[in-house]
Write a structure and sequence with these properties.
The protein is α+β, with helices and mostly antiparallel strands. It has two domains: 3-125 and 186-215, no CATH class; 130-185, no CATH class. Helices cover 50% and strands 15% of the residues. The chain has helices at 27-35, 41-73, 102-117, 130-150, 155-185; strands spanning 3-5, 86-90, 93-97, 192-201, 207-215. The chain has a five-stranded antiparallel β-sheet, with helices on one face. Helix 2 (41-73) crosses helix 3 and helix 4 packs antiparallel against helix 5. The radius of gyration is 20 Å and the shape is globular.
């Protein structure tokens, strides 16, 4: 079970504040206690939390790198996207790809975990997450099928309908993708503990850093 992230969060600010759904530190622990008999539930709950921590770590790595570059150039700090960093979450931890300093990564993971737990829940959301890509594809496919079924079959009508469908899908996808991330594919990592961070090779033979995590029940 895996989810993909392509690169860092683009611009700073309170991108998503979880205002509709207030995360609770013991919610997943209680859910697992009550419904732990459901096969795969723990893995799903952990994957959501890992996914959020992966996003936050990439976010902070980008911020640290940008601040370093700004200091060297003696210019004011301004958070930008570091497109050289990518990640992939699993139920045991997450991979990070790119030119990453191991010491900076350890610092970033610790910062990300602490800041998420302390209420910076916007760090869990990533605009280039694979969730957004999947949502965009589903919306586009649905819009195209609707156009084909309900509009006149003449070439001009279909072409105009296709253009409108793809435009509407592209316009809706970011907001819907963000909501899907916020409420379904990520969760604040109240139950995660860092086990180990090491350089490794993933299943596809790509060099990466792997952040190994373990589940612990909230106190």
């Amino acid at each position: 079970m895996k989810t993909m992230t392509n690169s860092a969060f683009a611009e700073g600010g309170n991108f998503a504040n979880f205002d509709f759904f207030q995360p609770q530190a013991d919610r997943d622990s209680q859910l697992l206690k009550q419904l732990g008999f459901i096969p795969g539930l723990k893995e799903v709950l952990m994957l959501r939390q890992v996914h959020a921590l992966e996003h936050a770590t990439v976010w902070i790595l980008s911020d640290l790198e940008q601040k370093r570059q700004n200091q060297e150039a003696d210019i004011p700090a301004n958070l930008n996207d570091n497109e050289t960093i990518g990640g992939m979450s699993t139920e045991k931890g997450f991979y990070l790809y790119g030119e990453i300093n191991s010491l900076k990564l350890k610092r970033a993971v610790c910062l990300a975990l602490n800041r998420l737990k302390q209420g910076e829940w916007d760090l869990a959301i990533h605009p280039r997450c694979g969730t957004n890509i999947s949502v965009a594809m589903l919306l586009t496919t649905g819009a195209i099928l609707t156009t084909y079924l309900f509009l006149p079959r003449d070439p001009l009508g279909q072409l105009l309908g296709l253009g409108c469908a793809t435009t509407v899908a592209s316009w809706l996808a970011p907001d819907i993708g963000t909501s899907v991330q916020k409420y379904f594919t990520t969760a604040i990592p109240f139950n995660l503990k860092i086990r180990e961070i090491a350089e490794t090779v993933d299943n596809l033979g790509r060099t990466a850093h792997f952040v190994s995590l373990q589940w612990q029940n909230s106190q």
